[in-house]
Amino acid sequence: MTFDLKNMYFGNDVTDVFEKDGCKIMRLATEAGEGIMTVYDVLDGVYIMYNNFHMESCRSDFVPGDNVLCIDHCREGRIETGVSDNACCCLSAGELRIDNGMHNHGLSRFPLNHYYGLSIAFELDKAQAALDSFIREFRVKLSDISRKYCAEKTSYVISSSPEITHIFSELYNVPSKIKRDYCRIKVLELLLYLDALEIDRYKTEKPYFYKGQIEKIHAIHELMVSDLTRSYTIEELSRKFDIAPTSLKKCFSSVYGSPIFSYMKNYRLDRAASLLKTEPSMKVADIAMAVGYESASKFSMAFRKEMGRNPLDYRKYAIQTEVNPNEE
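Above: the chain sequence. Below: its structure as tokens.
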């Protein structure tokens, strides 16, 4: 591969796991967690990187530039990236981002401790020559795509749509034997789609937040999940962290993907589900109290609505499934 992806992105934190026939698998391991990156050399100057991170954050040394075009797609989780010394933005599940690689540089955070997606990188000069050689009558020019989507200082973000889902769902489910050739076809399909897209119709205006606001939101999150027996109002959190209520609600939803109270409700129920599986002797009433429910009956109703089973049935099912994974 002509890109030194190991050093260009993550330096000494990355180890090579496998490399053969235009495919390279790398493992990123830090105190924040680990990630696996699988890179395919699709054409000369065209690379697809599958990113599967289970970590809080990582840092990339990728250098954006006028000769680079990057397309990022988030399939699961969320990724929070900086675009300047003072501004951050989040990419959500189903969204597509196009820029010159500015979001692939510096610190990236994963608010849900999980991110699965892919990046397609083009070295414009090499990639265009390769595309011209691959299909001589292919009319789409990478320089036109770059001018169309990268003229502004902010990234172009396309919200989830059936067309985007169709293109990328197939990229995530390609048999390894035909991976490289199939990826070439999908890259062409994606470029045709982007060339034809009406730019003002599908653009999503992603809110940018000051890094100071983002840090306060992370601190608010840490406070709330550190003791689930406590509940806080928006007004209490606003005063405690010196952030306006409207900014708090808007920024929290952007970083964590849902309004603050919906997020905490789901967090509490997910924690309860974990306790039901890992603490079989713990009473349901005690679990309810541990995750912030004063009433065991209200907890059971909320749990059943979210999980499809009452707590005791969920525990039995979870234990049975662990003992016999083939049980439906």
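The mean pLDDT is 87.
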